[in-house]
Amino acid sequence: MVKAARPIGARPFNRELGLGLPVQLAGRPLSRHTDTMDQPVKPEPADEILTELAKLGSTRTWEPGSTVVTEGEVADSLYIIHSGELFGELMLSGGRRAATVQVTTRAQLTCVTRAEVERALVQRPELALELIDRLVQRVRTLTKTVRRLASVDVYGRLVGLFDSLAVTQGGLLVVPGPLSQARIAERLGASKAMVNRLLQDLAHGGYIEIAREHIVLLKKLPPRW
Description:
Blueprint: E1 23-25, E2 28-29, H1 48-54, E3 58-62, E4 67-69, E5 77-81, E6 85-87, E7 101-103, E8 107-113, H2 114-123, H3 125-165, E9 167-169, E10 172-176, H4 181-188, H5 192-204, E11 208-210, E12 214-217
Antiparallel strand pairs: 1-2, 1-7, 3-8, 4-7, 5-6, 5-8, 9-10, 10-12, 11-12
């Protein structure tokens, strides 16, 4: 549980890395391993942008269960969490909120309007670079997460396809063909590149043997890839 941080003053924020942040996407707590919003962008990110932006905002205490932002509403501000993170920075692109965020423990958040953020970034270009760096790191983390989830999903469909097509021939369990990677990809609703990657990994692991006319299942496929 994250303690409510001290009010903003001249001293930098007190980071409490390793502890969960007091916010969640509505309906499910955020995890440092699966969601980008509450995981530290870098092992020891600088606090300068947080400190400077916090000077321009208004701080209030939020009680557990309170909704900070709601999906679909106009995105006109970002919020600084006093454990040393922020969320809502996508408001710089305009548009509406992409998610609902609720407080899970009593916490202090500082709200900074889009106008104030833009003014600060114009006056202090180095802050803009730091914010861009944070966004880049989050996109990288999100990309890795999406890739992992997509891979698991496609792999599960691949195992199901092989199970449904496999027959016994000469004492071997075989998926008859010809079954090209393009055709497998079409059956799975995946890219040919993803299918190729999965097949090559399984072949290198000794699970399958790929031939022109068929695929031999040498042993039970692993439950996860």
